[in-house]
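Notes for week 9. Today we move from apo structures to complexes. The key idea is that a small molecule is not decoration. When we ask for a structure prediction with zinc ion present, the ligand SMILES becomes part of the input, just like the chain. The input block below holds both the sequence and the ligand string. Read it once before you look at the output, and try to guess where the molecule might sit.
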Amino acid sequence: MNVNQHTPMASPYGQPQPGYGQPGYAPLDGGYPAPYAPYNGPSSAYQPGAPPQGPARGPPTSGAPPISAPQPYNQYSQGDMQNGPPPMTQAPPRPAASQLYNQGAVNLSGPQPSYPQNYGPQPSMQQVTSQMTGMQITSGAPTPTGPGYAPPRSSQHPASTAYSAAPPPSYTQAPPPASSAPTQPPPPSGPAASQQYYGGPPPPSQQPFNSSLPPTSQRQFPSPGLPPSSSQQTFPPSSYSGPPPFSSAPPPPPPSQPHPYQSGPPPIRTQMPPTSMAQSNHLPPGPQGPQCPPGPMQQPPSQPGMQGGYPPQQNGAFGQGRGPQPGYAGPYPGQPNYGAPAPAPAPGPPAQKRLDPDAIPSPIQVIEDDRAKCTEPFNTGVRGQVPPLVTTNFQAKDQGNASPRFVRCTAYNVPCTADMAKQSQVPLAAVIKPLATLPPDETPPYLVDHGEAGPVRCNRCKAYMCPYMQFIEGGRRFQCGFCSCVTEVPPHYFQHLDHTGKRVDCYDRPELSLGSYEFVATVDYCKNNKIPQPPAFIFLIDVSYNAVKSGMVNIVCQELKTLLDYLPRENPEMDSVVRVGFVTYNKVLHFYNVKASLAQPQMLVVSDVSDMFVPLLDGFLVNVNESRLVIESLLDQIPEMFADTRETETVFGPVIQAGLEALKAADCSGKLFVFHTSLPIAEAPGKLKNREDKKLVGTDKEKSLFQPQVGFYNTLAKECVAQGCCVDLFLFPNQYVDVATLGVVPVSTGGSIYKYTYFQAQSDTERFLNDLRRDIQKLVGFDAVMRVRTSTGIRATDFFGSFFMSNTTDVELAGLDCDKAITVEFKHDDKLSEETGALMQCAVLYTSCSGQRRLRVHNMAVNCCSQLADLYRNCETDTIINFFSKYAFRGLLNNPTKAVRDTLINQCAQILACYRKNCASPSSAGQLILPECMKLLPVYLNCVLKSDVLMPGADVSLDDRAYLRQLISGMDVTESHIFFYPRLLPLTKLESGSLPMAVRDSEERLSKGGVYLLETGLHLFLWVGASVQQELLLNIFGTQSFSQIDPSLTSLPVLDNPFSQRLRDIIESFRAQRSRYMKLMVVKQEDKAELIFRHFLVEDKSVSGGASYVDFLCHMHKEIRQLLS
Ligand SMILES: [Zn+2]
């Protein structure tokens, strides 16, 4: 081989070599001030300097540890004792709480071609909103209802407020049932016709599903009012079995039905500003169920076929409408008229009221309210306190429990008994992101070194020393907060207690005062009792025809020449200890000897791939600095060597085996970066065949498409995990590659999958390189094992994420990076005590990128409650949705998709019905009453149900679904939130320093004269209205007219005006907050590409059959009523 001069590739990525400071490289985003300092500032030295004093347990607030001073916090170890009160010091000033920080990372890659654009006609908004006017939605704090339920504390949440639909001004025409008697605007508390609607079991005569729409739809719901175009939505009318929609009839007196809560006085109603949901008190109970007088004639046509009550479980399939995919036709009937109280007399014909979208819970309002409420840093010292939402910028202060950046729970008040938990159906789970990157104003976990003695642990359950250990007998022993066992304090760890029984060095030791910290692990915690070798990175590059032709090979090789200088390290001052190795492959594998002493790299070809081995040991894994010239030579030559290849077949299994064998030979853990293009059909272990069969979609066999087609990769994954070999897979497919199978190893080893369908150097390079740069540089731990311990009465029973488990308790992660989250579910195995609460300790043993073995510990205590109301008052819906999505997406492996969807809907209905039954104030069954903390559960759950994974459009490929399914399994709450409910910002006015307030994800929020930015965490769209103001055009695009906008733009022109600058800054800041680079896509209103964009307007009905928010809410209400009856 020749050492060639670097052929300056037209560097599309043009980044200067040495400094990664340029835009291209620095990108690691705001949250990553020092791109190369992994662990945002290594948790290096713990500085005991200034322990805050005082009753409140304060974290050592001495500020972030100096990055470069890795001095272990070992001053007290080994026999050092400190007597006397802890030094008093002033706590350092708090960092500004206003720092912008969006934690979170995201997943997928930008908009991909893989989302084809056939999104079909869009549903008309009108119909969507035209239903149910009279439905009342109340959310509020539980009020005392039954015996034993304490009144809500007003201090926490507003008392239950009813979201009654404000009388919608607009009436969409419904076919005029003769019935409509003149309707009167509902007096505030007036009888709402709507109530009737929802009240009670459906009249026997109703026809279950009539969706007015879809041509292909199976059953049609005769709703006259719907436009034909709405064919997608199939909401079963069943949901509205109540009285006829039109409420013109005078409200029946409150039914005397034995409704337990009926007698209570209605809450006071208050009106909220327009965009917020109108809050009002419950309307007087309307007629319920059977008692309801049949409405005036509504939807006459439909009546005939309708059967009486819809079986509760029947809902489920929302999808329908989509012809091609059989299985998704569901019982979600189209949009019936949801009777509603008629605010105003309907003019002439059928006046159908539309449910005012402003009258149902708004995600934007909830997000804004939470932001407004959050003015102080969030201190973690108060047990059971719900943290700010993930959408709120806040500063977290560790005062004894893990920060919400590391751990978020579905409930911060856990039911005391299994029965209560079962009754509520609220999942008890925590989403843990063990190595999360913290914003610059928060202190990373301190590193505690107890020397050879290692961490102090409970003798019985082995929990690590933490703030929940109670010291007794003058400090000579401690009682475990998890299992109550009493353990001797080792002599070197002894300390006296103060008059309150607290150790006097409490605030000097992170493990006694903080929720999160790290211990230096001793050799006992190392594999085979040997201090680990530094990890290695191995790059395995597909050099088959497609890989070369697409430009991928060239781009990867060119980039690595620079990127190898930015391998992860804990001390930015020092070189990374990570060694590197290189392999290229098609049907055979080529290993490279890049030993520093060689003048030229040497290639060794292994053509027998049936039993992979590594043909060289010395010279394969090298230090970048030592072998720089040889490596650069190699990277220059690879593209040339394969420039004329005709080889189209590839192998895949042997590629991973090669990397694994190399790590085994070097006796180290590490990461494989595999750049791969095609289905591995060449003869070799792990060979695959094309099994893509869209006909299976929607059938009971659909689940097989998510399962690997061969068992080979499961076995291989297990071997990788045993070695600490993490695999990151970069896919560049032009057709089906079977992501479900190729992804087995990455997903089982804690790795990541990136997918660039129809990769084109010109348009996709930026996204790919940004992903690659971040992936290589980010903080990662290797050969990790995570164990979650809990206090008596509760235990971790299930785990969701990218990892492997060979027993029921240890989560094994060959690699664990700062973006990965693991969701853990808990179940009761005994009664819990309100007094002691419930404790959780998550300990992750891993090898740092510098080769040090460590234990990261996160502790979390939550309250236990004997009142369901307390549970419902202290939940976090975003976390519940994270859990539900992972639970459902995993369920796809073994269950028909429809069953998975039905399960989700049923569980959600049970959660809300339990609240209604046990916690809500008396009201009519016609009212939908939602807990304040869960008022967005329906809208978010609907987003999960209509995601491409559970309800694919006809054009969503199986690979896309498998990819998303795997991606979401590793998401934290921030990522899953924006993935399911994208952020939509109007850009008419931009002020520096603050973002415009987002609007709801619905087409009706878009103005033709405006420009909007939509962010999903994976995609970024700039939507331009057809009548956009000229000033905006000039400011953003520098063009005079709408038609001159180039829709193929992936970046905005750099114009010299403040608006342009601000908009580009916003886009960059969004990208910086996500773990994957979001490519920008410009969407002109009414262009073809708008169909892709509309897919993310998740409150609207989707082309693939997903219900609109309004329809889903009605459906959910019906489900709840059925459960209550
Ligand atoms: Zn214990």
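Residues 458, 460-461, 463, 480, 482-483, 485 surround zinc ion (CB under 6 Å).
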